[in-house]
Amino acid sequence: MYKITQLSIFLENKRGNLYNTLDLLAANDINIRALSLADTTEFGILRLVVQDPIKAKKILEEHWYIVKNTPISLCIHSWKDWKSYSIIASRRFGQSYKHFNCL
Questions:
Q1: Is the pTM of this model over 0.85?
Q2: Which domains, from first to last, does the chain contain?
């Protein structure tokens, strides 16, 4: 089990906002390890695990994004037969979790 930081970014739900956010991170050499997006008709919360969360948060806040850091636990399970792996990130003693399947 690993302790890592997840960024939660508030985004207005309008065309190009997700692209612009990810492009800003890419332009600053921030690599995304995991991504989750929850949205409504007016706004969304983009959750990211990146290799340098402190740098990413600083860059986003300099561009007026609302960003929150959340400590999470990361478990990695691999299955050789499926040639894929599953990442389960749980927040605060398993109260909630995100499950990512990666091929």
A1: no
A2: 2-102 (3.30.2130.10)
